[in-house]
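// run 5 | inverse folding | seed 20
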């Protein structure tokens, strides 16, 4: 449900404008197949088949998403069509048995619907999908009205980003920040989304920090370090270096 999202998770236009950060509205599908609360079982099946999707948002009279009806919600009718469930099945699968006897979207749907705001980042939407084990999320505005739908495939589009675009953002937002200076010793190369950081890193304690920041750049598949040994200090290091004190 949208109510489960914090303001930070909802995302803001400023977040979208920073760097290359994509938000859900950038990749969502805007033309969405839906059904109303009173849609019949056959209407739902027909719409699923015609639109070649496996789930449909269910809308009320104000175009607000009130649930989602999926193929999984419809299967109990076929499963229990020619047999009576035993007592154990009745106790364990009460919800499925109720759906097996239902014939409208209102009674078949899973509710409330798990949704996402348009300003959520792709990473945030991916985490919600993974935790809930769902393949798609309806995208809704602050009033719950449907704006689009985002799928797992939509979230993966970010990995099609050009290697040089990724490298430029890593240089601008990671290496320039952690290793400032006109001639940084850190080299950035990207191949098939894998970021390679090479050169000399004077403070090796920054390796995990750099790795975390690079992985946060959209389109990064992995990060690898190819660091050269640090140079030993040269020249005087104290008042008595190179001879005896006065």
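// decoded
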């Amino acid at each position: 449900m949208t109510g489960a999202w914090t303001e930070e998770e909802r995302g803001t236009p400023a977040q979208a404008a920073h760097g290359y950060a994509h938000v859900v509205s950038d990749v969502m599908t805007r033309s969405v197949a839906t059904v109303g609360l009173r849609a019949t079982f056959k209407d739902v099946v027909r719409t699923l088949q015609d639109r070649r999707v496996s789930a449909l948002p269910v809308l009320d009279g104000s175009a607000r998403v009130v649930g989602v009806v999926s193929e999984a919600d419809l299967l109990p009718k076929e499963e229990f069509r020619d047999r009576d469930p035993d007592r154990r099945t009745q106790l364990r699968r009460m919800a499925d048995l109720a759906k097996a006897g239902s014939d409208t979207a209102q009674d078949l749907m899973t509710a409330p619907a798990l949704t996402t705001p348009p300003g959520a980042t792709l990473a945030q939407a991916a985490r919600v999908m993974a935790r809930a084990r769902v393949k798609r999320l309806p995208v809704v505005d602050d009033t719950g009205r449907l704006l689009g739908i985002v799928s797992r495939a939509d979230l993966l589009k970010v990995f099609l980003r050009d290697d040089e675009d990724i490298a430029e953002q890593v240089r601008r937002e990671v290496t320039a920040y952690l290793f400032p200076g006109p001639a940084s010793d850190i080299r950035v190369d990207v191949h098939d989304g894998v970021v390679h950081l090479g050169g000399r890193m004077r403070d090796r304690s920054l390796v995990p920090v750099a790795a975390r920041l690079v992985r946060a750049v959209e389109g990064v598949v992995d990060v690898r370090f190819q660091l050269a040994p640090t140079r030993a200090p040269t020249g005087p290091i104290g008042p008595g270096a190179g001879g005896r004190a006065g």
